[in-house]
Design goal:
Elements lengths: L30 E5 L3 H15 L5 E4 L20 E5 L4 E5 L5 H7 L5 E5 L7 E6 L4 H6 L7 E6 L8 H6 L8 E3 L3 H14 L4 E6 L21 H9 L6 E5 L13 E3 L7 H11 L4 E6 L7 H9 L7 E6 L4 E9 L3 H10 L5 H6 L4 E4 L12 H17 L1
Parallel strand pairs: 1-5, 1-6, 2-5, 6-7, 7-8, 9-10, 9-12, 10-11, 13-15
Antiparallel strand pairs: 3-4, 12-14, 13-14
Helix pairs in contact: 1-5
């Protein structure tokens, strides 16, 4: 829930721009509340699932302390600090004085691929329901929270879904039912859902630069029989759901109407603004971003990047031998990069390479490093022309 300037729930009427919102729940994109069993059983189930999936997916867990737990204020919070941060030997620990607002919780869980929630205390947009005779009365009280049940788990003392759940949930008989003790099936359920939830991959050709060093529009140079912006867009099409050409304000008439275009709405930030603009428009999509000044780029390099894409990372990028750092303008930026890019911008950074250097990415070696060659000056253009002509003559 978002509060307005009067500290009241936001109403449907809006005075401000309508933005595309990421499809997150209370905590993350892929979240399940496990409800209907004792808290100890829920915690053990979460432990087993997380242990099985942690090597591939970033997992998180949400719970609430019981009344009988120790509730004394930890660390320097007791002295009045608003945040207490401790760098432990094997983990980092933050304690906050004030309750986290819903939007702050989403920020904390933005990097998680899977969020498991103790549904006895917290809610999530999807539910896994444990059928336990001993918790029947407790589950009955929460039946209205079962808005999106995706799995039933039968405890050892139960052999069927409760009648009140059958009455409350349409098409309940189409929801899978497993034994709670069958951890392999339960883990496979979450793994399958995470695979299906892999963000769709769109393409973005960066063609909004002013090409000041080149002296002519780099996106309009004809290296391969057509303007480079369209050549790049055509190369991306086999690997992407949709491909867009990024352009700056006032440049729209220069883009062929046959190619979908996306205006840079974060002006004055160069490629950084173009990437943010794409994520702003489609925040649930991943973006294969490519600069239009890479005349030696080939399908093999793109195919390798997509094949080794790791959607659990912030981005998948190539190591650039020329710079010694990740190359941000031939890279796949996942939806989870959006809040990170905004966070860097808020701290005064607008270099996409700095984001890659300082976040969790998957870094690859390019099959042919020459494909990463970018051209910014007339001298570089003449050198690459000779390379292309030599390749044509050889073939």
């Amino acid at each position: 829930m978002i509060l307005n300037e009067h500290n009241q729930p936001e109403k449907k009427h809006r005075k401000h721009a309508k933005l595309a919102r990421p499809s997150t729940g209370n905590f993350g994109r892929n979240e399940w509340a496990i409800v209907g069993g004792p808290c100890t059983v829920i915690k053990l189930l979460a432990d087993d699932v997380i242990r099985a999936l942690a090597a591939t997916y970033k997992c998180a867990y949400v719970d609430t302390s019981h009344n009988d737990d120790i509730t004394s204020v930890p660390g320097r919070l007791a002295s009045g600090a608003i945040v207490d941060y401790t760098h432990q030997v094997n983990h980092q620990q933050f304690n906050f004085q004030n309750p986290l607002m819903p939007y702050q919780l989403k920020q904390q869980f933005a990097n998680a691929d899977l969020v498991l929630v103790n549904g006895n205390h917290q809610q999530a947009k999807a539910q896994v329901v444990i059928i336990d005779i001993n918790k029947k009365a407790s589950l009955l009280k929460r039946v209205e929270q079962l808005s999106n049940v995706q799995l039933f788990l039968l405890a050892d003392n139960s052999d069927d879904v409760f009648d009140f759940i059958k009455e409350a949930i349409p098409c309940w008989d189409q929801i899978p039912v497993y034994k709670l003790a069958d951890r392999a099936k339960v883990t496979a359920f979450f793994e399958t859902n995470l695979k299906h939830a892999k963000p769709v991959l769109n393409g973005l050709v960066l063609a909004g630069g002013q090409s000041l060093r080149m002296g002519v529009d780099k996106g309009n140079i004809n290296w391969h029989g057509k303007p480079q912006r369209y050549h790049m867009a055509d190369m991306l099409k086999p690997f992407c759901n949709e491909v867009f050409i990024s352009y700056r304000a006032g440049q729209q008439d220069e883009v062929d109407g046959q190619y979908p275009a996306l205006q840079d709405t974060f002006t004055g930030l160069g490629p950084y603004g173009a990437i943010l603009s794409a994520l702003r428009e489609h925040p649930d999509s991943a973006w294969l971003v490519i600069a239009c000044d890479l005349p030696l780029m080939d399908e093999g390099t793109l195919r390798n990047l997509v094949a080794w894409r790791n959607s659990s990372s912030v981005a998948t990028a190539y190591y650039s031998p020329a710079s010694g750092f990740p190359e941000p303008l031939i890279a796949i930026w996942e939806p989870k990069s959006y809040p990170i890019l905004l966070s860097f911008l808020a701290q005064g950074y607008s270099c996409p390479r700095k984001v890659l250097i300082n976040t969790d990415i998957t870094l690859l070696n390019a099959p042919d490093t020459a494909a990463l060659t970018n051209v910014n000056t007339p001298e570089e253009m003449e050198s690459v022309k000779r390379v292309i002509h030599q390749k044509i003559a050889t073939n």
